[in-house]
Write a structure and sequence with these properties.
mainly alpha; DUF7792 domain-containing protein; 81 residues; DUF7792
Amino acid sequence: MYSAAADTSTSLPPNGVEEKTVLEELSLPILLADRVFKSAQEAESSKQDCSDLAKQLDRLSQMLRSAVRLAISTPLYDRLC
């Protein structure tokens, strides 16, 4: 018989699995945004489209970095109050 009270899988990670930090979660997207930004700046064809893409990627990268700085500098309970 299924017991809803015994199901804690949605609230706790499995045994032995640690949650990643914000920095760990966002480091790959930041790195990829930087790489695509650089490639878009170096593009020889579709310069206007690549320029627009580079601007959007620069903004995205800045927002991701800001999120990491906020998460590292301010404890969660301070942000919620």
